[in-house]
Amino acid sequence: MPAVQETVARVRAIDVDQYKYGFVTDIESDLAEKGLSEDTVRFISMKKCEPEWMLEWRLEAYRRWRTMTEPNWARVDYPPIDYEDLYYYAAPKGTKSGPQTLADVDPELLRTYEKLGIPLVEQEILAGVEQRRVAVDAVFDSVSVATTFKEELSKAGVIFCPISEAIREHPELVKKYLGSVVPTSDNFFATLNSAVFSDGSFVYVPKGVRCPMELSTYFRINEKNTGQFERTLIIADEGAYVSYLEGCTAPMRDENQLHAAVVELVALDDAEIKYSTVQNWYPGDAEGKGGIYNFVTKRGDCRGKNSKISWTQVETGSAITWKYPSCVLRGDGSRGEFYSIAISNGRQQVDSGTKMIHLGKNTTSKIISKGISAGKSQNTYRGLVSAHRKATNARNFTNCDSLLIGHDCGAHTVPYLEAKTSTAVFEHEATTSKISEDQMFYCQQRGLSEEEAVALIVNGFVKDVLQQLPMEFAVEAQKLISISLEGSVG
Amino acid sequence: MNADIRPIRTAAESSLGDIFAAAREELPGGEAALRVRDEAFAVVGRKGLPNRRVEDWKYTDLRALMREARPLADTPGADEVEAARALLPFGEVAARRVVFVNGRLSPDLSDMDTLEEGLSIAPLAVALAGDAVSALALKGVPNDNAVVALNTAFAADGLVIAVSDGAKIDRPIHVANIQTGAAHASYGRVLVSVGKGGSITLIESHVGDSGAHQTNTLIGLDIADGASAKVLKLQDEGLGTLHLATLAARLGAKAFFESVSLATGSSAARQQIYLDFAGDKAKAEVFGAGLAAGGKRHLDTTLVIDHRTLGCSSRELFKTALDGEARSVFQGRITVRPGAQKTDGKMMANALLLSETAEADAKPELEIFADDVVCGHGATVGAIDDELLFYLMARGIPKAEAEGLLVQAFVGEALESVDDDALRDALSARAERWLSERV
Amino acid sequence: MLSIKNLHASIEDKPILRGLDLEVKAGEVHAIMGPNGSGKSTLSYVLAGKPDYEVTDGSATLEGEDLLALEADERAIRGLFLAFQYPLEIPGVATMTFLKTALNAQRRARGEDELPTPAFMKLVREKADGLGISTDMLKRGLNVGFSGGEKKRNEVLQMALLEPKLCVLDETDSGLDIDALKIVSEGVNALRAKNRGFVVITHYQRLLDHIRPDIVHVMAKGRIVRTGGPELAHELEAQGYAAYAADAA
C-alpha cells in the first residue's frame, strides 16, 4: 500500500500543530481603514472601479446588514466578533484593478502560489498529472491576482474572470444573476458579503458548451486581521457543462480571521454544474488559538428543467465552519447532489450540511455525508430536505455517517425532513460509531501500524465521496485527510 | 434571545394567567407546592406559549394550536360519570382500573381495593401533602418545557403508585382518562416508583366526547436498579380535543422500560417522551403508532433519549399513517454524553402518506459525545408501495382492502411487542376500525 | 381460454411488446422462451395488470372477457394467476393472513361464502405439507426472510389454494437449485388439469424437463417469432438465442 505509507510518512514528518500552508507572504498591502461604514463600502467599490448601480446594490445590503443579528442556531461557540476591528479590504500593493497578464504579477505572489502547489503557469498545473489542464483564478486577500487560460476559454465562448472584472465587462450578465440565488437579504453573513465582497470568480458557459477544461479558484488569506469576502457566480446556460474546483489556505496567525463568502450557481435547462471544494483554511493550533471562521453561503439554483448541480466538499480546515451548500430544485426533472467529507480535529468546530429544496416535479436529490471527529472537536451535520406541495415525485436519499476517533470529541446529526406531497419518497439513514476494533485488528494483523490502519479505514469510510472529486483533487484530498487526522491516534 | 421579553399576550396566554391566579390558592399541596407551581407558571408567564420560532416547537406551534385557554374542569356530576362509564375502553383486558373523569379521580368507577402485596396507590393530593416539591419538580424532565410547566402549575389530581423492592405486580393498572361535558381543561399527573427488582405494567387510555377540551397529563416513572416497567397507551381522545402529554422515565442500573402507544384521536396532540439513563446497562424500548385522517389533524411525537451511563441500549420505532390534511411531526434526539461508552441507540421513524394533502415532518437527531458507541437513526416518508399493492391485487384482493392490509402491517410493527393478547387485540381492533372508517 | 391478439405495450413510452399473438386452450401448457430483453416478463405483467405498463394496441381476453379493461384484482378473480419472478416481501402481513384474505376476497367476489378459519387452516396445511412449507413459515411475514426456493414454493402454494384458470409462471426457475426446482415443478404438475391453462416463461430449457410443455414459443423483439413442439426447447438449448438476439438488437 504505497499510497498509505506515503501518507503516513507525511504525517510523521510534521509536528502536531504544523500546518503545511501556514507561511506568511511578505508583501506590502493596500488596506482599507479598519472598521465598517458606508465609507468602507464606497472605498471598496471605488477601488474596484465599479459602476454606480453596483455601489447602490452594496449600500442597500450594508443598510440591511445593520438591522440584522448574527445567527446563533449552529452548534458552534466563539467569542463575539468585533466587526469594527477588521479590515474589509486588503490588496497586494501594485495590483491595479483590471485585466492582467501573468507577466504583471508580483514574482513574490507567484512564488506563494508555487509553494501552495498551484503554480500560476499555463502549462501543466498540478505536478505529476499529464495533459489535464486546469484554468486557475488566484485570489489573494481581496483581489484576484491572476487568471490563467483566459484566452483559450474565450475561444469556446466561456467567460472566466474575476468578478470585479465581470461587473465592468459583462454588466448585463451580472445584473441578471447576481443575488438571484442568494438574495442580499438572505442571512447575516451573506448580507455582509453583499456589502463588502471584494473579489472572486465569475463563470459564464454559453448555451450548449461543454467547458473545455476544469476551472478553479484558489483563495489565499494572507493579511492580518483581514476578512475575506469573496463572491463567486457561475452560470451554465442551456445544455452547458462546467466543473469548478475551489481551494483555500491561510497563514497561521494567532487571531481568528473571518471568511464570509457567497457562491451562487445557476443551471438553466439541461445544464450541469459540478462544484468541488477542498477547504483547508488554517484550523488554529491544538489549543484552539487562531484559525479561520469560515461562514459561507453556497447555493445552487437548478432553474431549468433537467438541470443538475452537484456539490462535493472536503472540509479539513478552519477553526469554525458554518456552511450549507444547497440546491433549489426548481426545474422539473432537476437533480441536486451533495457529497461531503468533514474532518475535525484539535478544537475545530464544524456545523455543515446541505439543503435540498424540491420545488419542481420529478426532482431528485442525493446526500452523502461523512463526518470524522477527532481530538476535542465538534462535528455536526445539519441538513434539510423538503418537498413542496407541487413537487410531485420528489425523491431524496440521504446517508450520513459519523466516525469518532477518541473520546473527547463529538459527532452530531441534525436532519430535517419536510414532505408536503404524498408522492415524495424520502429516505434518510445515519449512523455514528468508532472505527471497528475488528477492522483495526485485521489490518494490524496484516502488518499495518495503528496509524496506517486508521488512515486506511478512514480512506475507505470516505471513498464514496472521494470518488466524486476530479482525480488530481482526490489524491490531494486523500493526503489531506490523513494529515488532518495526525495525532488523533493513541 | 429576545423571546424572553414578550409584553404582548395572546388571548390564551392572558386567560391562562387569569385562570391560574384564580385557582392557585385552591390547588392541593400547601405553601411548598405553591412556590413550585408559581415558578412553573412563570415559565409560560414569561415566555408565553411556544411558537414555531422556538426550535423545539418548529413544527408544532402551540400558540396557534391553543388560541383559547379552556376553564379548569369542575368536579364531574353524576351525569358525567355515567357518560364516562359508557366510554371506558379495554373492558376485555384484565387489569385494575383507576378512572379519571375530566381529570378527577372517580372512586365509583375505580378499583383501588385489595392491593397486591408490595403495591401502594394513593391520590396525588396525598403525596402533595407530604413532599410536595419532589412530586411537582421532577428530576430528568425539562421543567422549562411549556407542557411540563403547565402540568406542574395546574396538576390537581392524579396518582402516586409505588412498587416495593422485589414486588412483581402481574395485574396491569389501567389508568383511564375520560373527558366529557362542557369544554374544559384537565391536568393529571401519575408518579410511579418501582423498587429494586420490582415490576409493573401501566395501561393508559385517553378517550372522550367530541368537545373542544384541552388535556395535559404527565407520567413520571422512577425505575430502580434491576426493575422493570411498561407503559401501554391508547390516545383516542375526541376529535375536538387538544392532547398534550409527557412521559418521563428514569432508569436505574439494569432496569428495563418499554412503552408502546397507539394514537388515533384528538384534533392535535403532542406526546413528549424523556428517557433518562441514570444507571449502567439499562435497556429501553419505545414504540409508537399514529393514525390521523381528515381535517387538519396534527400528531407530534417528541422524544429525548439521554444516555449518560455505561452500556445502555435504546430502541425507538415510530410509524405514522396520514390521510386527508393530517400532519405528523417526529422529533427524536438521542444524546450520548461523555463517558456513556458502549451505548447502543437506534431510532426509526416512518411516515406513510395516504393522500396528496397529508404532510410529514421528521427531525431525528444524534448528539454523540462518546466514541465507543453504535448509534443510528433512520427516517422515511413515502406513499404506499405500488409494487406491494400490485402483488396483493394480483391475488384478487381489492385495492381498498389491500391498502388497508398494508397500512395495518405498517403500523402493526410498532404494536407487536405488546405481550398482553387481549390488549394487543384491542389496539389492533382500534387501528382496524380507523382503517374501515377511512374507506 | 387465453387469446392475445396483436398486443402492443410500452413502459415509459418505450415499446416492449410489438404485436404479440398467443392462443392458449384449456388443458394446455405453453412455454415461452426467449433472450433477455425480449419482453417475456413484460407480457406477464401486462396480462396481470401492473400499473405503469401501457397497452397501446391489440387485445387480450380470458374466456372471452376483455382482461385489459380490468384492475389487477379483478383479473385475479377471473382466474388469472401470476407466479412472480421476484415475489415481494411484506413485513407485518403474516403469510397465513395474506392467504386467507386473498382466498376469501376471491370467494366473496364469486358469491361464495368466506371459508371459516378452521376449514381454511386445514386446507392450507394440506397444500403446504406437499410443498414442504412449515407452519413457522406461514406465521412469518409474507416472504420475509424466505429463501429464494421458499418464496417460489409459496407462490405455488398460493396457486394451489386459489385454483386459477390460467397460470402464468414468470421465470419460476430463476434462483432455484435442483432440489427446489423439483419440488416447485411437482407442485405445478399436480395442478395440471383439463380445465386449466399454463403459460411458463423461462430462459432455460431445464425447467421444461420438469414441466413438460405441449407447445413452445420463441419470443424476440416483443413478439412470438417461432412456435413448435417440445423439441424446439432442446434446439434452443443446443443453439442458443444468438440468432434471435441479433434480430432483437
TrEMBL record, chain A:
Database matches in SUPFAM superfamilies: Stabilizer of iron transporter SufD
Domain of life of the source: Bacteria
Record domain SUF system FeS cluster assembly SufBD N-terminal: where: 150-211
InterPro entries cross-referenced by the UniProt entry: Fe-S_cluster_assembly_SufBD, SUF_FeS_clus_asmbl_SufB, SUF_FeS_clus_asmbl_SufBD_core, SUF_FeS_clus_asmbl_SufBD_sf, SufBD_N
Residue intervals of the SUF system FeS cluster assembly SufBD core domain: 219-461
BP GO annotations: iron-sulfur cluster assembly
NCBIfam families, sorted: PRK11814.1, sufB
Similarity-based family: Belongs to the iron-sulfur cluster assembly SufBD family.
Protein name as catalogued: Fe-S cluster assembly protein SufB
Gene name, Swiss-Prot/TrEMBL: sufB
Automatic annotation (TrEMBL), chain B:
Family according to the record: Belongs to the iron-sulfur cluster assembly SufBD family.
Record-annotated SUF system FeS cluster assembly SufBD N-terminal domain positions: 16-175
Protein name (database record): Fe-S cluster assembly protein SufD
All copies of domain SUF system FeS cluster assembly SufBD core, residue ranges: 179-410
Top-level taxon in the UniProt lineage: Bacteria
NCBIfam families in alphabetical order: sufD
Family matches, as PANTHER family: PROTEIN ABCI7, CHLOROPLASTIC (PTHR43575)
One family name in Pfam for this protein: SUFBD_core
Gene Ontology biological process terms in this record: iron-sulfur cluster assembly
TrEMBL record, chain C:
Entry-linked PROSITE patterns: ABC_TRANSPORTER_1, ABC_TRANSPORTER_2
Domain of life according to the entry: Bacteria
Keyword Flavoprotein carried by entry: no
InterPro entries registered for this protein in UniProt: AAA+_ATPase, ABC_transporter-like_ATP-bd, ABC_transporter-like_CS, FeS-cluster_ATPase_SufC, P-loop_NTPase
Transmembrane segments: none
Pfam family, one: ABC_tran
Entry GO MF terms: ATP binding; ATP hydrolysis activity
Record keywords: ATP-binding, Nucleotide-binding
The keyword Nucleotide-binding appears for this protein: yes
ABC transporter domain boundaries: 2-246
Family: Belongs to the ABC transporter superfamily. Ycf16 family.
Protein name per its UniProtKB record: Fe-S cluster assembly ATPase SufC
Organism: Chenggangzhangella methanolivorans
